[in-house]
Specification:
The chain is 81% helix and 0% strand. By secondary structure, the protein is mostly helical. The radius of gyration is 23 Å and the shape is globular. It starts with a helix and ends with a helix.
Amino acid sequence: MNVAIDTSVIVVFSVFIMLVGFSFSRTGRNLKSFFAAGEAVPWFIGGLSLFMSFFSAGTFVAWGSIAYKYGWVAVTIQWTMCIGGLVTGLYLAPKWKATGNLTAAEFIRERLGVGVQQSYIYIFMAVSLLIKGSVLYSVARLVSSSLGFPLMPSTVVLGLLMIAYTAVGGLWAVMVTDILQFVILTAAVLIIIPLAFDAAGGVDRFLNFSPEGFFDVVNGEYTWGFIFAFALYHIFYIGGNWTFVQRYTSVDTPRSASKVAYLFAALYIISPVLWMLPPMLYKLIDPSLQGADTENAYLMVCKHVLPAGLMGLILTGMYFSTSASANTALNVVSAVFTNDIYKGRINPAASDNRLMYVARLSSWFFGLGMIAVALIVPYIGGIVEFTLSIAAITGGPLLAPPIWALFSRRLTGKATMYITGLSLAANLLFKIILPLTSGIRLNRADEMLVGVGLPFLMLLAFELYARWKGGESAEYLHLQQVRAQRKVGTKITDPEEAAAIRQQNIFGLKVISFSLAFIAVLLYILCFFAAGSATLVAVIATIILLLALIPLRASMKNSAS
C-alpha cells in the first residue's frame, strides 16, 4: 500500500461528504424537517439509510474477528438481523408510523406516562453514547493501524468529523451521506473479494479448506441457543431502537414504513456473506492470528491484496459506514433531547429558531460524549466483549416494553418501570456482579437468553394477569383521548410548508445523483493506480455512474409533477 495515496483518497472523500452534509444546512426549517425530513422521505432512501445506520466498522472488526476464528457462524449471526427486519416490516414499523409521533420518546410519554419517558430518555442517551462510542473506536483503530497514525488523535479527529455534518444538516444530511457510504462500502467490498480469492488460491482451495467446524452454521460459543436469543434481541432492537424508529416515522405512510424494514431485511440476506468472505479467506492465507490480533483480520487481508489508493477506499467505506451509524444515533439523541426535554419541559414556548439552535448544540454535546467513550473502549475488554455486553444488558429491558405497548391495552407505566428495573438489575447481576464476586459467569447463549428472555416473560406474565383482572390501563385510555384530540385538531398542511418539504426532497435526490457521479469519477481516477485491478475498478465505477441516473430521473419527475 502507498500511505500518501491512501491518505489522499480518505481526505478527498471525507471533504466531499462533509460538503454534502453542509449543503443541507438551510433545509432544516423546524424540528419536523430537521429530525423527520418533513415525514416525506422516499421509502427506498429510508431503507438504505436504516441499513447503513445499523452498520459500522465494528461489523468488520467484531464480526470479522469471529469470521476469522470460527468461519461461517459469523454469517449466521448476522442473518438474525434479517429475521428482525422481516418481523419489523410485518408488524412493528407500520405500528410506529401509525402512532403519529415524531420520536419513540414522544410515544412513550403519551402511552406510558411522563415518568417512564424521562427514565427511558436518560438511560437511552447513556446507552447510545456507549454503543456509538464503541463503533467510533473500531474505525479509529482501523485507520490508525493501517496508516500509522496514533490511536487517540485519530479517534478525536474522526469523531469531530462525524459530528459536524449531523449538527449542521439534520436527518436529510444523514440519510444522503448514508446512501453515499453504502455505495462506497459496497464498491470497496466487491473489489476486495475477487482479489482475496486469488491470493488464497481460488474458490476450490477455499471450499476444501476445512478447519474443524469452519463452514458449520454454528460453532464455538455461538450455539443455536445464542442464535435464537440474538434473533429475538434483533426483533426488539430493529423494531424498537429509537434510532431506527425515526426511519419508520419519517416516511409518508405505514405501508412505506414496512417497505423500509423489508429493504433492510433483503440487504441483510446477501451482505453478510460478502462482508465475511475476506476474513474467512485470510484464515487460509495466514492462520497465525491469535487473541485480540484477530480483530485486525479484515485490515490484514486488505493490506495483503489491495493496490495503492484502494486501501484508502476501503478505509473510507469503513469510516463513513461507522459515521452513518453514529450520526443517526446523534440525530435521534439530539431529537429526543430537543423535542422531549427542552421543548417538553424546559421551554415549551421556544421558537423554531431557538429549537434549531438547541438541536445543533446538543448534537455537538452528545458527540463529544461519544468520543470520550471511544477513548476508553480499549481499557474495558475490547470491541467484541463491549458490544455484546451492552446488547445483553440493555437490549431487552429498554426495547421490549415500548414495543409491547404498541399492541397492549393493559400495560401500565408502573409495570413498565418495574419490568425494566428488574430486568436491568438481573442482567447486571449475571454479567458484572457475580463474575467479579463469585466467579460465576454465564456463557454467551445463556447471557443473551437472560437479557432478552426475562423482560419478555415478565411482560407476558403481566399481560395475562391484567387480562384476568379485566379492563384497560388508565394510560391506554389517556392515549386514546390524546389521539382523538390530535385528529380533531389536525390542520390542512400549510401550502408553503408542503412546497418547502417537496423542494427539500428534490434537492436531496439531486445531491444523491451528483454525489454518485462524483464517486464514479474518483474511482475512474483510481484506475491509474490500481495496476491489475484497473478493469474491475472501472466496471464498478461505470455501474455507479449509471446508478446516478435513478435519483436524477426521480428528481426531474418530482419537479414536473
